[in-house]
């Protein structure tokens, strides 16, 4: 009986270990935000708080632009949106690099 209990315990431990070691958890499988209707106009850069691409599993790909008035979906082919996306990703890289360099001790 002790052997059976030890075997069951070992199997449970192995099952828990395997489940936590999976490369993709359940939250990694669901898509982020998807767009179904697209804003046809242009949003001024000064109003853009953040911009991100929709998840690759979305049926219609686009940019999700966060503004003080709310979120807007914009088609990936809009040149102004591509420029805004590239600018914000470049700006965030600079801020990350500046933040990392400011935490380093002086030489």
UniProtKB/TrEMBL annotation:
Any Pfam family the entry gives: IL8
Signal found in the keyword field: yes
InterPro entries hit by this protein: Chemokine_b/g/d (IPR039809), Chemokine_IL8-like_dom (IPR001811), Interleukin_8-like_sf (IPR036048)
Domain Chemokine interleukin-8-like as annotated: residue spans: 33-82
Signal peptide residues on this chain, from the entry's feature table: 1-21
Main location: secreted
Keywords recorded for this protein, A-Z: Cytokine, Secreted, Signal
UniProt-listed PANTHER family: C-C MOTIF CHEMOKINE 3, SMALL INDUCIBLE CYTOKINE A
Name the UniProt record assigns to this protein: Chemokine interleukin-8-like domain-containing protein
Organism, scientific name: Ameca splendens
């Amino acid at each position: 009986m002790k052997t059976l209990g030890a075997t069951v315990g070992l199997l449970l431990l192995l099952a828990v270990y395997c489940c936590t070691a999976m490369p993709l958890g359940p939250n990694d499988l669901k898509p982020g935000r998807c767009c179904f209707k697209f804003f046809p106009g242009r949003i001024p850069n000064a109003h853009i708080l953040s911009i991100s691409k929709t998840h690759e599993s979305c049926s219609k790909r686009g940019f999700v632009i966060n503004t003080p008035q709310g979120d807007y979906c914009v088609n990936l082919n809009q040149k102004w949106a591509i420029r805004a996306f590239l600018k914000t990703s470049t700006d965030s890289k600079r801020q990350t690099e500046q933040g990392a360099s400011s935490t380093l001790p002086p030489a």
